[in-house]
Amino acid sequence: MMNGDDKLFCIGGLSFISLSILFLVKDPNNVVLSILIPIYYLCSLSALLTVFLVCCCVALELWYSNLRARYLSTNNLYRFLTNGLTFTVLCIAFSWFLCIGSGSLSSADVLSLICCTFAAAISASCQKTEKSIAVVTAVQQQEKTPSSQEKKQQFISADSTDDLDLDKKYAVQCQSNIDGLPSKRRRTALELLQTEATYLKNLTIVIQMFKDPLEKAAREDPNALLGQPDIDSAFGGLPVIKELHDEIYQDLKLLIDDWVEDCSIGEIMCKYEDRLIKAYPPYVNYFDIGKELIQKRRKESAELDKFLLDLTMNPNCMQQPLDALLIRPVQRLPSMALLMKDLRKRTPVEIKDHQDLEKAENALKNVLMHVNEDKRRFEQKMKIFDIVYQVDNCPPNLISSDRRFISRLEVITLNDGLYRSGERLDLYLLSDKLEVAKWRRRPSARSPFLLKHIQLLDLEKVETIYDISDTDELKNVYAIKYSGEAYNDTDKTGSTPKISVLESLDSFVFKKKWITAIAEQVCQIRSNIKPHDITSTLEANDLADMVKKGTKLYRRLKSSVRSKNE
């Protein structure tokens, strides 16, 4: 039996014979009417050009083995050959029709028609029967001769194009019930199993088609488009999550395949509570960082962008972009919690699983609480890095494994306390420190930073926080009494308590939250006191007695008191 190349060779040979006959045998004198001679020439020329194109196409295909794979599909190639040869047969037949009555047809004309007819028949059969064979042959030939662009993209692994067969691996079958349709409880359990299977398909796609090829390239090429640290930030934690959910899926599948109405799904979810708490934070914490990192690298590298786009169009990816796949682990736990709640509603109270599902629902809420709290703490630690990078001369020891960022407030100093009066400051409240930074009026050539470090106040030295009642002239004002140095203070020992009066540039409500936040952090350090022990409300007149007489703040406070009395 002939293969695809043999059939192409036969089509080309028959077409070439027909072309030679058409080129050599031309006798317009046989046309019945002289007025039909131009039509005769048109038919002959059309037949010549068409069969010539067929011969050229076959010759190119036989000479350049990857022509079809790069420019034409196999079906399109044979469709062109069949249509071209059929058109040639029609042209020859029509030219004969113009010569009817002038004499018998020559053997050359008959041979030309037979050659074209056989070639068209072979091409038509190839179009139907050899499509898959031609595709495989073209792909194999293309793999043997990779282009230069493909050589640049050697980081693309074969895993990214192989059929993952995920539908078979994570198949969920709903067997018919003896009594008819499945119960509402069982249908919800099947929905839980189906969503778990879909989730595992997505994780497998990300790991095998994106993560593994990029990691392989990073190991083999130090100048890979995505380095190992970037890969860890974007995909770290996914293998552990997938391994854990594979176990959950197998337990659920065994239970649902051998379904009994009083089986316990809640026990399965409760069993994995501790492992879920450990598995998810490493991925969720770095999700936003990894997402921004990939977007940045895609803008910097056109090759990486093309690689990710090509994988998105892969049938195994179901045309889902990488961003949509990466967010699935973030969405999975809330989705499972909702399904547990729905399943509990559809479970009769007399079944033991009703109580187990309530425990499972609480277990998932506990997992979510731990994941969210861990992410919040992680973001608080990362914020300290931003402070160090944004504040000029900020002490490096501000970064500590047990130190967290709590809040930030922009203020104006009203006296010489934390800094000289009338300056705009940024106060960064940390878990055990208060970073004081001054706003520069404009960046200089020596220092591009807009913020300059002033001092780092230990919260243990904070004695009292005063909330100053608002007046017509004073609003959003509070004061901190602390042990330490003050601007232009002659006492360098820091033994005498100092008062720093500050005006918040944010809203009144935020000032209240800020005072509460400082008091809570001080109480965590000094465990023997409560927040109300170190917070107090002062009137403007009482504050005037605590500040230095003759200062601008003193006169302002006295003026405010007189205005209030009037």
Output the strand order for the largest sheet.
1-5-4-3-2-8-7-6-9
Q: Looking at the chains present, what oligomeric state does this protein adopt? A: single chain
Helix content: 55-70%
| Average pLDDT over all residues | 79
Care to describe what's here?
The protein is α+β, with helices and mostly antiparallel strands and 566 residues long. The protein has helices at residues 4-24, 37-63, 67-71, 74-98, 107-129, 131-144, 148-152, 166-169, 184-220, 228-235, 238-257, 266-271, 273-279, 281-285, 287-300, 302-312, 322-326, 328-345, 353-390, 508-525, 540-544, 552-565, and strands spanning 391-392, 405-413, 424-430, 433-439, 451-458, 462-468, 477-483, 497-504, 535-538. A hairpin with an 8-residue loop joins strand 6 (462-468) and strand 7 (477-483). Helix 9 packs antiparallel against helix 18 and helix 10 crosses helix 15 (287-300). It is elongated, with a radius of gyration of 41 Å. 30% of the residues are buried.
Strand and helix layout:
Elements: H1 4-24, H2 37-63, H3 67-71, H4 74-98, H5 107-129, H6 131-144, H7 148-152, H8 166-169, H9 184-220, H10 228-235, H11 238-257, H12 266-271, H13 273-279, H14 281-285, H15 287-300, H16 302-312, H17 322-326, H18 328-345, H19 353-390, E1 391-392, E2 405-413, E3 424-430, E4 433-439, E5 451-458, E6 462-468, E7 477-483, E8 497-504, H20 508-525, E9 535-538, H21 540-544, H22 552-565
Parallel strand pairs: 1-5, 6-9
Antiparallel strand pairs: 2-3, 2-8, 3-4, 4-5, 6-7, 7-8
Helix pairs in contact: 1-2, 1-5, 2-4, 4-5, 9-11, 9-18, 10-15, 13-19, 15-16, 18-19
